[in-house]
Amino acid sequence: MAVYTEDVQSEVRGQLGFITLNRPKALNALSLAMVRELRDVLLRWQQDEKVLAVAIRGSNKEGVFGAFCAGGDIRFLHAAGMAGNPELEDFFTEEYALNHLIHHLGKPYIAFMDGIVMGGGMGISQGASLRIVTERTKMAMPETAIGLFPDVGGGYFLSRCPGRVGEYLGLTGQMIGAADALAYQLADGYLESAQQQALWDGLAAGSFANGQAVEAFVRAGLATAPERAANPDADIAQYFGLADVPAIISALEAGDSDFARATAETLRKRSPLMLFVVLEQIRRARSLSLADDLRMERDLVRHCFYLRPHRKSETLEGIRALAVDKDHHPQWNPARIEDVDLQEVAQMFASPWPAQAHPLLALD
């Protein structure tokens, strides 16, 4: 049995498989080795009748829980993209296959979404049969800030949020807490962070007839969710159901509410090209299966890193500005929402592969 990395710790206790992401200094950001380890472990447990369910958590610098997963390892993605390292392609193909496996595991998968749950962290939790949030949960799909799009199945799960919430979260990258995550159907239950260890240990010690009994045990241990503070749902519906990005930004900039002003300011900082791509991605994904959405996202990510003729990669520039040079001044191209070429947006959705050679052909 291959072990790819010590950053993923897995064990069977009682009738459950337990996974702890253990790369706390990087907020458990996923490396290619971690993706491979997770997939191998899950495939093994999927076939093991003695493993009735799976539970997953992250660790922080003080111990377990407190940080779930901040996403993919964007420093690696930048270095690999700049060097033309083929492991960049492997990372996305294998990560998306892992996301698909989690959605189709066939047995309960319980995600303890404590602390930061962003990007790739959503990819390994949104397919869970029970998604547990705490008072410390900080959830987001912030990819437009780095010139990317909400991948890892983001088109699929964001497009299935109520109303136009998916467009709002995908375009802005807005961070939400437990109450909004539950309201937006991105979480299933709430637990005080201090109670997580007891539930985790109870799963290890319990005697269960089947996977349904495991789920029932977890649900019985959940707490009442906190009340939502003032929520922006009416504003989200008003603006993010509009026809296109120019209409959304025009309406926001003409608005006089705090929501309109703050949201317009946020969108003006994001990659203009990727705002158009994300709006199209989420609206297309509403009618796609998860497998087809992941194939579309695999096409998009190839374009993002490699296939923009005559222009630099928005994604490499975005990561440079946020995580490498940290100047927080990405030079987007085009620089303005008003200058985005719709033909270029359409080209992003053209698959670089013939259907029979697609790297995610096997997903169903």
Automatic annotation (TrEMBL):
Q: Which named protein is this?
A: Enoyl-CoA hydratase/isomerase family protein
Question: Where in the numbering of this chain does the Enoyl-CoA hydratase/isomerase domain appear?
Answer: 17-349
Note the SUPFAM superfamilies from the entry. ClpP/crotonase (SSF52096)
- What GO molecular function annotations does the UniProt record carry, in alphabetical order? 3-hydroxyisobutyryl-CoA hydrolase activity; isomerase activity
UniProt-listed CDD domains? crotonase-like
Q: Please give the organism.
A: Comamonas piscis
* Recorded superkingdom: Bacteria
A GO biological process of this protein is: L-valine catabolic process
